[in-house]
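Example record

One chain of 373 residues, shown exactly as stored in the release files.
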Amino acid sequence: MGILDKFKDAALNQFIEVIEWLDDSGNTLVYRFPVHQQEIKNGAQLIVRESQAAVFVYEGQVADVFGPGKYTIDGGNTPILSKLGAWKYGFNSPFKSEVYFVNTKQFTDMKWGTANPIMLRDPDFGIVRLRAFGRYSMRVIDPANFIKEIAGTNAKFQTEDIESQLKTAVVSEFADAIGEMKIPALDLAAQYKELGDILRQKINEDFKTYGIEVTKFYIENISLPEEVEKAIDRRASMGAIGDPSRYMQFQAAEALRDAAQNEGGGAGLGAGLGAGFALGNQMANVFSQATAQNQQQPTQPPTEVPVTITSEPPGAEIEIDGTYEGSTPSQLSLAPAEYIIRVSKPGYKVWERRVIIKPGTSKTFNAILEKEA
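Predicted C-alpha cells for this chain:
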C-alpha cells in the first residue's frame, strides 16, 4: 500500500459521514458509536430508527438528544451546534463529540423473585413466610438521564448489567406493599392483579430517577410454607364435607352396602346386615346427639367483617351493590356475602369488582383508576 492509499484510509476513518446503529443483540440498552478520535464531519448524516434515541455528549455533558428520523449535522437545522460550541474553524471543519444510541423499545421477560422468604403476619395462620416470583417489562423513557445515572461512558450497556439492581428494588417494593396491604394468605391468589398494579406504580416512583419505566408487572406465584399449605388443604377438605350429619349418614349407607356384599353366602349376608344394623344404630345415636346439641346452641348472626377501600387518586365515590357508601379512603363493615364494589371519579374510568367477603378475615381493596382518553 502506497503513502497515498494510507492517507485516504486515514481520512475516511477520521471523518464520519453516516452515523447509525443496527441492533442485532436484542438486549442492548446503550451503544456508543465508534467515532475515530471523536471527530464528526460537518454535513454527516444521522439516522435514528424507531425505538431509538441518539444522545450527543460533548466535553462530558449531554449536548442534545435526537428522536427517530434522519438528520444532517450542519448549522442550519440542528440545535446541537449552538450547544457544542466546537466550531472554531467554520462549518466545513469536523467537530468532536461522543454519540450514544439508546434503545427505547420495551424489554420483556425480565424476571424477578425473592431470594429469601418475606415474613408476614397473617390473621389466620400467624407469622408466615412468603416467596414470590414473576416477570416485568421495562423501557428507557429519558435517554439523557439514563446515560448520566446508569450507563455512564460504557461503550455497550446491556440488560444484564442492570438486572440485578432492578431485581433488588422490585423485591424491596414487593415486601413493603404486601406488608402495607395486609392481605390474608388465603386471599393472595385473588389479589395478584391489584397487587401487581400497586407495585408497578411504586417501582416507577423509584425508577424514574434512572430514566426507566416499568410498563408491565406480573406476579406469577406467591408460595406459602408447606405447613401452611397443609393447613389450607385441611380447611378446604372440611369445607368440601359440608354438613357433618349428612356426611355421617352417607358413611353409614356405604358401610351397609359393603356388609351386604361381604362373601360367605346367607350367613355372611346375615352377619353383614347385623353389623350394618348395629352400625346404623350407632350412627343414629350420634345423629340424635348432634341434633340435640345443635338445638341447644342458638344460631348466631354472622359477624361483620372490616373492609377498607382506597383508590389512586383518592376522593373517589364508593358504591356497594348500587348503594353509595362514601368516598375513598373509607373503612366499612360488611356481613359475609358476595358484593359488587364500584369506585368512580370524574375524568377516570370506573373500577368495578365482584368480591366475596368471608367471615373472620379483613379485606383491603385498592382501586387503581385510569384516566379517560
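Notes: Residues 107-229 form a domain with the Tetrahydropterin Synthase; Chain A fold (CATH 3.30.479.30).
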